[in-house]
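User: My advisor asked me to double-check a structure prediction for Dipeptidase before group meeting. I don't want to rely on an old file, so could you generate it fresh from this sequence?
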Amino acid sequence: MKKPAECTTILVGKKATIDGSTMIARSEDGGSQIIPEAFIAVNPEDQPKHYKSVLTGQEIDDEDLLPNPLRYTSAPDASGKHGVWAAAGINDATVAMTATETITTNSRIQGIDPLVEKGGLGEEDFVTLTLPYIHSAREGVERLGYLVEKYGTYEMNGSAFADHDEVWYIETIGGHHWAARRIPDDAYVAAPNRLNIDFFDFDDKDNFMCSSDLLDLINEYHLNPDYTGYNLRHIFGSSTIKDAHYNNPRAWYIHRYFDPEWEGKPGDQDQPFITYAKKKISPEDIKFLESSHYQDTEYDVYSTTNTEAEKKLFRPIGINRNFETHILQIRNDVEEGIAGVQWLAFGPNTFNVFVPFYTNVTTTPASFQTGPDFDLSKIFWINKLNAQLGDTNYKVYSALEQAFEEKTMAKLRKIENETDRAVKGLEGRELQAKLEEANQKMADLAYENTVALTGEMVASGHTLMKLKYDLLD
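Assistant: Sure, here is a fresh prediction for Dipeptidase from the sequence you gave:
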C-alpha cells in the first residue's frame, strides 16, 4: 500500500544548539525505485478544501479542514503518484514539522489495536493535514494525535514539531493510539526506524502527552514487562535482530560523534532516547551525520581495509536511498520574519550540500521544483548523478566533494548573513521579496557549484576508466 520510506531523525533543543535555535532534522529515504523530491511553498489558496488520500481513499471531514490555513513550505514527491507526501516544512506561525520516521511495533499492541487495513492516514497525509493549522509545537502534537485517534493509521510512524521554545516528538501506537514527549532544551535525540520513546511519565502533562486511554490500555492488557515505571519502547516496541543491524547502529554512531566517550555497542537495544552532547550542535554537525557511513570505524562501507563482511554488517545513515534531507531551524537571535530556515538537500547525502532556505516566502527556486523525469536543470538529478559517480571510487572523488561542500557552504552562509542584516526592519511582502531573492541566489550558487563538481569528477575519473589502452601500459 505505502511506498518504502525509512529515515533517520535528529532533534535538538534550543540550549543544545550553537546559536540557541531549535532544530529538527530527518533524511527521507525510499526503496529501490528513485523518488524525485521537490521544494515548494503552499499558499493558503493552494491548500485543499476537500482532502482524499491517494493511497487509502480516506476522506477528511470538512470540519477537520479548518478555515484560514497558514502558508507553509513543503518537500513533496515530485510525481504525486502516491499522494503529496509533503515531508517537512515551516509555516507562517514559525512552527516546523517533519513526518514521518517509520518505526517498529510488537504483536502485543497489534493484537489489541491493529493497524487500519482500509482507509486511515499516514505519511502521505500528515504534514498537509497538520502544518497549516497549528501555531505551536504542542498544538502540532495535539492535532496529529486527534487525527490518528479519529481516522486511524495503517503504519507505525514518528513525527516531530518545533517552535521557538519547544521540540516535541510523537509516535503512533497501534492503529489509533499515540504518545509524545517534549525534548529537554539541553538535549538531543537520535531516532532511527524503531519505536524510540523510552521513559514515559503519565503524570507530567507539561512534558508528556498521549491518547487519553493509553495507560488504561497498558494496565488492562498487561503490556508492561518492567517491574517499575513505564518504558514505551519495552511496552510497544520491538527488540529484534533487524533492530540490532538496521536501526540501533545509526543511533550509536550519532551518540559516538557527539560524545567520544560514549559507552555501548552498535547493536545495543536500550540506547536512551534523551541524550546530551559534549558540545553545542550546529547544522553542519547534522549534515555530517546525515551523510555518514560509519567513518573511522570498522563498519565504513568505503573503507579500503575493512572486510566485505564488516562493511555490510550495519545500515549506514548516508545511503543511496536518501532522496531528500532537511534541517528545520527556528532561530531565536533574529527578527521573527526571518526566524524559519529550511536547510534542504536532495539525493544521497555523501555528495550534496544543504541549502539554508528562508521559509517566509510565497515561491521557491525553479531548480528545486523537481519534476518526475530525469532533468539536469534540476539539482535533484545532478546530486543523484554525482553520488552514483562518486560511489565508483570514493577515495578519489570524496576529496573533491569535501572541497565542494566547504566552499559552497561558506558562500551560502555569507548570503544568509548578508541577508539577515539587509532585511532588518522590513515586513510583509517587501520582506518576502527580499527573502525570495536571497533563496534564488543560494539555489543558483548550489546548482552552479554542483555542476562544477560534476565536471571535476569527470576530469578526475577520465584516466581511471578500465576501458582504456596506452602503448606505455
